[in-house]
Amino acid sequence: MYDLHTHSTNSDGKYSVDDMCRAALEKGLRGIALTDHADMYVFEERDTLNKMTQAGIDLRAAKEAYRGKLQVFFGVELGEYLMAPDKAEQILTLNDYDVVLYSEHFVPAAKWDKSYNRIVCDESVSDEDIRDYMKLYFDLLNNTVTAFDYDVLAHISCPARYITGRQKRATNVMLYEKTITEILKKIIDRDIALEWNTCGKYCESFGYYDAQNEEIFQLYRALGGSKVTLGSDAHNVGGIGRGFAETKAQLKAMGFDNYYYYENRKAVAVKL
User: Fold this and answer.
1) Model-level pTM?
2) What is the CA radius of gyration of the chain?
């Protein structure tokens, strides 16, 4: 198994790079990518430049320490590219990454001045507010998927993981199927992989909510998409590789032949 989406103390993870690698080895994984956050909307607040510099130091050490035992890949999860392209490019050229994930955690056009994991969906938030937010989120993805050089589109339906999985407010990402279709066509044309993120469905704190992953991947396959990565989005050692055996079986049943990991920004196929 290869887990292409995890976090360490170099962003908001709870464990060091070495802790995460040791846990992956103990769980029998063949490879793990540490993909710490570089979110533009909190670039200064989170000391992102220094954190990603330290990540480079830690990952180079881990690659050497686990050589021959575990494949360790250095990645980054870059968010909100259009908010600060200059800072984003600074991060992208800072290190020699194995894999670059793209995600959005903050929607500037929305009425909330915070990321979707911090929005409190109380009685002041209407169903229409939620639908409008989800529309703006997918519009932002659609406007950004061709904006820069990256390898994997991460957790495409992520806001629903928080709004529905954690806060129990109804969402249906397939209401935005037209925009999602446009996004998927664009990444297929660019040979960018689509991540199946297992965090929601296999995580108690998100109510084991799947955020319509299956419908999205069925659409992706129907459009000709074939490049899939698996990401636990683990922020602690317990989450590494969660649900991978079940997800691999699900992907195979849907007609996918392989999933992929990335090394030196090159996709490597693994038979399902």
Assistant:
1) 0.98
2) 17
Task: Write out the CATH class of domain 2-271.
Answer: alpha beta
For residue range 75-129, list pLDDT tens digits in order. Answer: 999 999 999 999 999 999 999 999 999 999 999 999 888 999 999 999 999 999 9
Contact 264, 254 (CB under 8 A): no
The structural domains of the chain, with segments of one domain joined by +, span: 2-271
Q: Are 20 and 58 in contact (CB under 8 A)?
A: no
Distances (CA, A) of 62 to 166, 182, 214, 254: 34, 39, 34, 36
Instruction: Tell me the C-alpha distance between 263 and 74, whole Å.
Output: 8
CA separation for the pair 272, 260 (Å, rounded): 10
Q: What is the pLDDT of residue 111?
A: 87
Instruction: Please identify every stretch of the chain with a pLDDT value under 70, giving residue numbers as ranges.
Output: none
What share of the chain in percent tops pLDDT 90? 99
Residues sharing a CB contact under 8 Å with residue 195, sequence separation 6 or more, in sequence order: 4, 5, 101, 152, 153, 154, 155, 156, 228, 229, 230, 231
Q: Is 59 left (phi over 0), alpha (psi -120 to 50) or beta?
A: alpha
141's CB contacts (< 8 A; 6+ apart) are: 104, 153, 156, 179, 183
